Amino acid sequence: MCFQQKEVLVSDLEHEIDRTRDCLSWPFENVGKPFAAYLDRVTAFDRLPDPIDSVTSAHMGQQRRALVESYPEPPQCCSDLEYRSHLLEACLNLTRGENAWKQGHPEEAWFFVSEAKNCLGRADGYYQVMADQNIKTSRAARGGHQKAQNAKDKEQQLYIQLLKDLAPFDGWKSESEAVEKISSIAIGILETFGIAAGDTYAKLSEMLGSDSNVRTAFEKKQKRAR
After folding, report:
1. pLDDT at 133 over 90
2. Which element (helix H / strand E) includes 217?
3. Backbone angles phi, psi at 222, to 5 degrees
């Protein structure tokens, strides 16, 4: 009975090692990079002697950061290094577990594989939280840009309409006449619609030179020389 339990234990351990390896390797497969080569680097890093001074400590920190940065970024929403740092920890524990298993220490191997799975869990939790926050931030930014664009479009249409409706019977004598008359009226209308008016005199003056639609509206109502 004890032998049978041990066989089940080893069989399950192999299965968990394979599952953990699959979870950690798929980002490499997606970008066409060899996961085995990355694990070789992880193993070499794990075998480095403990730092004895600030120089060796800094060197180890650089090595670790290089490994974190080498782990492929997720497709979207969570590109910071904290997420990949959890995945590096999972890789470190996976290699330790595989090494213990090969040396015939299943209990020790189980410990490291369990730690690797815990690191995967922390990575997943971090990803879910940060991805949600980043998506909300992105949507808010897009919403802000869209709101600003909508306001700009409404302001443009207002100037076009006022250039038509407020033009004297014989047409605008000059750009300055149109700007002076329209800018003071536009302020109240824009604020009624919740649009920050700002310097309407400067805006309309600028748009008469840069916005072809506004320019066309002015020229259609411009006084013609006789």
Report:
1. no
2. helix 212-220
3. -80, 140
How is 5-62 classified by DSSP, letter by letter? HHHHHHHHHHHHHHHHHHHHHHHHHHHT--HHHHHHHHHHHHTSPPP-SHHHHHHHHH
Provide the token pair at 144.
Answer: 């802000």
Residue corresponding to tokens 């369990």: 114
The Cα–Cα gap between 100 and 223 comes to: 91
Predicted structure pTM score: 0.55
Among candidate residues 95, 114, 221, the one with its CA nearest the CA of residue 159: 221
Closest to 197 in 3D by CA, of 212, 187, 206: 187
Q: What is the pLDDT of residue 166?
A: 85
What residues have CB less than 8 Å from 185, skipping those under 6 apart?
162, 166
